[in-house]
Each structure stands twice: as C-alpha cells, then as structure tokens.
Amino acid sequence: MPDLPELSVAELTHVLEDFTRMHIRLPAERRLSFTTLSVLHTLAGGGPKRLTDLAAGEQVTQSAITQMVTKLEREGLVERRPDPSDGRAVLVRVTAAGAAIVEGRRNERTARLADLAARLAPGERAAIAAALPALARMVELHRTGEGVAGADPPSTAGGHDDEP
C-alpha cells in the first residue's frame, strides 16, 4: 500500500480559508453583506428560527439580528410569523424571494466552480472528489460536537448547511 500523505492541519486551514473567501465572492449578482447572506442561507437550509436562536447561530447580538431581520423583512426576503408552540414568540422564515437569492447564488457558484474545475488536471479533480467524503464528515463532526474534547455540541440554530 503506498504511503499516504500526512495531513497538515495548518495547510488545510489556510487553503480552506482562501477557498472560503473565493467561494463567498463567486456570485456576482446582488451583493449583500456576509451576515445578511448567512441569515438567508441559514433560514433556507434550516427552516424557520426564533430571533434568539438566529442571533446565537449567527454569533451576533439580539439587537443586531433584530435590525437585520427588520431590514430583510422590508426587502421582502424574510417574514415573521407567530411561533405555534409559544404565542409570545415569533419565527423568522425565508420568503420565496429570499430563497430565490440563495438558489441563484448557489447556481452561479456551481457554474463558476465547474469552469474552474474544468481547468484542473484529471488527477486534481480526482483528488478533490476523493476528499469530499472526509470534508463532509468533518462538517458532521462539528455539527454534532463529536470528537471535540470538552466541547458541547454547537447550537444548530444557525444550521449553516448552506453557507453564503
């Protein structure tokens, strides 16, 4: 069996940071702030959320998320509805217009990444394909808090299944 390359976590971190910055900026349509896009992606991927859960998941203050949701609501991208399990609370959900932004950005990213991938050598494309299950597993480990010494499972309130 051939020797497998040793994983450099520092190199992985650096490459993922660079890739994430590129990935976030790929779509050229409708420029929105990172936090705004994150809120839309969170709601589109994880369903309606209470403001407190949304604030915790997005790592912003209650005041900041309230202002953002108010702005997004005025733009028709989210809406507030009463929480059926607690009449005092509201749930924020993405509207069809907000979901269309998320889907449009995903489609544009897919097309642009397909173009970049087409420029790679076959071996490079195969290496990326081979890495996908391990990267997906890392996301799952983070999501559930498995294997993280002394860590509580992270809140799924922000549920970044679909990052901006």
Automatic annotation (TrEMBL):
InterPro entries (UniProt xref): HTH-type_Bedaq_tolerance, HTH_MarR-typ, WH-like_DNA-bd_sf, WH_DNA-bd_sf
SUPFAM superfamilies: Winged helix' DNA-binding domain
Lineage of the organism: Bacteria, Bacillati, Actinomycetota, Actinomycetes, Streptosporangiales
Protein name: HTH marR-type domain-containing protein
Position of the signal peptide: none
HTH marR-type domain mapped to chain residues: 9-137
Organism, scientific name: Microbispora amethystogenes
